[in-house]
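Researcher: Structure for this, please.
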Amino acid sequence: MNLADIKAVEKLLSLPQKIVIIPHKNPDGDAIGSTLALWHYLKNRQQKATVVSPNDYPKFLKWMPENETILNFESKNSQALAALQEASLIFTLDFNHFARTGQLAPLLEASQAKFIMIDHHQAPDDYADITYSDVSMSSTCEMVYNFIEFLGDIDSITPEIADCIYTGIMTDTGSFKFSSTTSRTHRIVADLIDKGANNTKIHTKTYNTNSPSRLHLLGTALKNMVILEAYRTAYITLSQEELDTYEYKKGDTEGFVNYGLTLEGIRLAVIFIENKEEGIIKISFRSEGDFSVNEFARKHFNGGGHDNAAGGRSDVSIEETAKYFISLLENYKDKLNA
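Model: Predicted structure, token format:
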């Protein structure tokens, strides 16, 4: 953030505001961690703040401090609508296009509130009055830490804030193994532990949450994996029938796509997941090196994200989607084998 933006934020927060904080649809650890961390910070500044999530999120994120204060737009619609309609200031975290909020998008577009964006994805829209966008950051949670530091309040980080920020950094960096993890990231994490983040508890509550049905679903996913050695690619498919067989719950397929990249020589890993309710195939892309799945997803699958982690969607069947995906790989063979 530049000095002018920092001063503008300070001016806004020097006055009482009715604040709403919004993550993207299907929020992950970084989205929930960053919104709750910011909620705690603003609450401690005596601001009235509410987190409104577009929809539900996985159980393994619901342990975070004050998670119960989040308004799920689908299940607490009237309360969420009231908060949005009354808002004088809206923070949008971990996304940079209103479309990423699903059914909240038209409400955000119509809002007369001021907007502050904090996000690390590429190609941000220009809807915000104040934009803090940095694609080099490991996570939006790392940016929330910086945001608090920009405002001169780093010593105000409580153990609750530290837990939330640590969770988002941990999950968005793949437990600190992705290339976006810098020495600065580690210094921030060390400071969070000093400020009370319980790293052992956070890892346990976030990752040690398997159920027998989820492990059976993982077994099915791995059995379905197809390896395309010529393109250094591995992909997984999961049909709605397979999800239903193992009583799929939101978040159960988290991390499945990464298994492809554990294979020696594989540079591109993909998972195609059927969602009959929405009538789409949800796609996650992961890559190693300089193969940009952000560009690939934007060009071919109505998606985007980061260079090494992106998402997309398809409106045809899972079989047609996989067939189309394979047909594209010949055009990228040299890049994948470079």
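Researcher: Any notable elements?
Model: The chain has a mean pLDDT of 96. The domain at 3-207 is CATH 3.90.1640.10 (inorganic pyrophosphatase (n-terminal core)).
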